[in-house]
Design goal:
Blueprint (H helix, E strand, L loop, with lengths): L6 H15 L15 H7 L3 E6 L1 H6 L1 H10 L2 E4 L5 H4 L9 H12 L3 E9 L5 H10 L3 H14 L3 E8 L15 H6 L3 H12 L4 E6 L7 H19 L6 E4 L2 E3 L7 H12 L4 E10 L7 H19 L5 E6 L13 H6 L26 H12 L4
Parallel strand pairs: 1-2, 1-9, 2-3, 3-4, 4-5, 5-6, 6-8, 7-8, 8-9
The structure holds (3S,4R)-3-hydroxy-2-oxopiperidin-4-yl beta-D-xylopyranoside.
Length: 379
């Protein structure tokens, strides 16, 4: 990877080196009650990590130290997405991703590459080029820019993100810009390019909405399995599947047997599995925090007890570590459900769906994750 470290990178790396020198890093801590998720997961033969943003790591010491304590793996929340990298065609802005990779390297942390192709992160200029000219070269150039620069730091690539959609095509493929420009074969082309550019990395297809025993997610699981089976039988080069794991307390029921059988069908294809984006969207924001946290922890326990019963599941990444920084907002629909409840401007205001609260304190969800790792270590 050839890039000139920025002043901020040096500061971050120095902070990381100091912390590393003091044995702050995961894996060197005691396995006692205060053991980190990093050490508990490692002891269980798996790993734990989180999605992060380098701009927050750079300014929030408490958040940075929590990440260093709790995680061995990092996923860029947005720095690596195509519309964040190449707003202007041919002029990639790589400084944020450079800083994040430098921070990870300085602290001995491992990285996931998220994500190469996602229909929601296509630069505006690329839409026209792909659709009008059916020109694959911007995709190949973007892959090559990222993988040549970061390939030696990235162990897993989410090559295709969220390819499934129900209610449209019989093959269940999302009618995204890639499919409209290149047909269903875009997935195979992306995997082939990624394998050629990153021959030693684990190539993954990452998907959401596969968790609950409800009709739409039953359909999504079926269609996703058909996609995986088709790609595997055609010899497509990929190694693993990312199950995002965005849990939602307004959904249900969750069937351990249904979800467990689904994971087994993926494993039967010879694929590894990573839970890549675990978090929990709440529904009732007016219950006392203790009750809200119990509900969240209970959902996570049920989910991970099934996930970790499957040997093909190798790791877990939550989509954020602390409620201080979660993409799960309390939405206008949530506010509308409680007219007047928050008129005074006070009230919950944040979704409590990540392991640490807004003050970086460990919540019942944190304990549920730790207990799930300990309960079912990889043999
Ligand atoms: C989300 C980020 O968290 C947001 O900050 C951004 O505005 C949109 O993307 N599934 C994914 C992630 O694979 O890339 C998405 O991340 C969340 C849903």
């Amino acid at each position: 990877m050839s890039h000139r470290p920025t002043r901020r990178t040096c500061l971050l790396a120095t902070a990381g080196l100091v912390l590393a020198a003091t044995g702050w890093r995961a894996g060197v801590e005691a396995q006692g009650a205060d053991a980190s998720l990093a050490s508990v997961a490692t002891a269980a033969g798996r790993y734990y990590g989180t999605a992060v943003r380098i701009d927050r790591i750079a300014v929030d010491d408490q958040y940075r130290q929590a990440i260093l304590r709790e995680c061995t793996h990092l996923t860029p929340e947005f720095e690596m997405k195509w519309d964040a990298i190449e707003r202007i065609r041919g002029k990639p802005s790589l400084a944020p991703m450079d800083d994040l990779v430098s921070f990870a390297r300085a602290n001995g942390m491992r990285m996931r590459g998220h994500t190469l192709l996602w229909y929601r992160s296509v630069p505006d200029w690329a839409a026209g080029v792909l659709l009008e000219h059916k020109d694959w070269s911007p995709i190949r150039n973007y892959f090559s820019t990222l993988i040549s620069r970061y390939g030696d730091a990235i162990e897993q690539w989410d090559v295709v993100n969220e390819p499934i959609d129900t209610g449209h095509r019989t093959d269940g493929l999302r009618e995204n810009i890639f499919l409209r420009a290149f047909g269903p074969d875009y997935i195979r082309r992306a995997l082939d390019d990624a394998r050629m550019l990153a021959p030693r990395a684990s190539l993954m297809i990452n998907e959401y909405g596969l968790d609950y025993d409800i009709p739409v997610e039953r359909d999504r699981r079926y269609l996703f399995l058909k996609l995986l089976e088709g790609l595997k039988s055609a010899g497509a080069p990929f190694d693993a599947v990312g199950i995002q794991g965005h849990l939602d307390l307004s959904k249900g029921p969750f069937s351990p047997k249904v979800f467990g059988d689904f994971l087994q069908e993926i494993a039967n294809l010879g694929l590894q599995i990573v839970i890549t984006e675990l978090d929990v969207k709440e529904y009732d924001y007016l219950a006392p925090a203790e009750e809200r946290d119990r509900r969240v922890a209970d959902a996570v326990r049920r989910y991970l007890d099934v996930a970790f019963a499957q040997p093909a599941v190798k790791g877990l990444t939550s989509w954020g570590l602390s409620d201080r920084y979660s993409w799960l907002e309390v939405t206008p629909e949530d506010y509308a459900r409680y007219p007047g409840a928050w008129k005074a401007g006070d009230g919950p205001g944040v979704n409590r769906g990540l392991p640490l609260d807004s003050s970086m304190r460990r919540k019942p969800m944190y304990q549920a994750i730790a207990a799930a790792f300990k309960r079912q270590p990889l043999g």
